[in-house]
Amino acid sequence: MLAHAIAKLFTDFVICGMTLTNILADVNLAQLPRDLDVLEVFTVAKSVASAAEESGYRSDVFDYLNEDQHDVTGPKGFQQALALIMRVREGGLLVLAPECKTFSFACMAVTGRNRFCYGGDTTKPFVQKGNALARTAWMFFLVGVARGLHVCLENPSGSMLFSFLQSYVNRLSDGLQSLWPLTPRPTDLQSSSAVDPQLQAAFLADRPDMKVFYVDRCAYEDKRPTFKKKYKFLCSSQWFSAAVRTCSCSNGFHEKLMTEVVREDGTVSKTGTSHLTSSGFYPKALGLAIVQAWKQHCEAPPAARQTRLLPFDRDPKQMMLQTLGEILKTLGPLLLGQAEKPSKRSIGSVLQVLGSKF
Ligand SMILES: [Zn+2]
Questions:
Q1: CA of 214 to the centre of ligand 1 (A)
Q2: Minimal CA–CA distance to 329: which of 159, 115, 118, 161?
Q3: Class for domain 2-305, per CATH?
Q4: What distance in angstroms lies between residue 275's CA and the mean position of ligand 1's atoms?
Q5: How far is the CA of 253 from the centre of ligand 1 (A)?
Q6: Residue extents of the structural domains in the chain
Q7: How many angstroms is it from 286 CA to the middle of ligand 1?
Q8: When comparing pLDDT for 105 and 193, which is higher?
Q9: How far does residue 217's CA lie from ligand 1's centre (Å)?
Q10: What mean pLDDT, rounded, does the chain reach?
Q11: Which domain of life does the protein's organism represent (predicted)?
């Protein structure tokens, strides 16, 4: 029922000619054995998969840089990755960490991505490719949730990938919330004699529900000093929470990930240091912590796993400030006398902002 409900939310979302409904109904994919516990997609470091293997789980990895594995933005790589995802057993772990480069703030000048247009300048092939990769990763997330896996999608905290995907994330989050009345609430469980409370509680405990967690890389690194890097994990439930750790550097000193050079005209040029590439690789300890968090969650009694159902990432204060910001942007020039009188267009855009928010 859950898989069908999620697929219904995304009938217009198509990757390599397939919707989620097509993927779930695909005969070849459906007949694959569900023989994997853990799958790490978009990785060459294999931190999570190796930790899983060391803990006795059956794991696999996928990345176009690995032998015989292709780019997921093409049909061959997409089908290969999909086949592996379909092989993960119910309750298994799926870690997705797509390349973040075209979504980073450091590349804004080249990609044309900004808060008014997270999709960037789509006339440029590498921007198109970045967008295709993000959308494909989102399809993998949906397949994972629909198949009952514990999923996380990771990028650096400042990556615009999450903003680019926000409307899809909201759609899934809202959809999952709306399913709530269809399932018994914990309070109903006590009064209902028709259902086995333990079974129902177990079902409710593993209901997917979008959650966001942050991890400071330095908290998982022994070497000091090290660089500062914050990872953001968008997760299919609260399973990830035990892996959260924040900066533990005693003096707060970090090595630089970017160097700044002031040009003759006063502008600043930023270049990544040699640490920048390796900062994308999870330290071994983080890989292990992710596997343990998942294991701990799956083994916890149902009551401990229940999550509060809150809409994803919608801080009311932040939404209000954002709305005010958008209104002031239109009204500001009028108030400062930089525009002579309110044009129909400027009034229209204020009303549009108000209308869309309240
Ligand atoms: Zn630190």
A1: 13
A2: 115
A3: alpha beta
A4: 14
A5: 7
A6: 2-305, 316-357
A7: 14
A8: 105
A9: 7
A10: 84
A11: Eukaryota
Q: In degrees rounded to 5, what are phi and psi of residue 130?
A: -60, -45
Q: Which two tokens stand for residue 25?
A: 């109904």
Cα of 229 from ligand 1 centre, angstroms: 8
Q: What is the mean pLDDT of residues 236-249?
A: 92
Residue entry with tokens 């908290």: 219
Alpha carbon dihedral 62, 67, 68, 73, in 10-degree steps, equals: 50
d(CA 156, ligand 1 centre) in Å: 15
Beta-bridge partners for 275? none
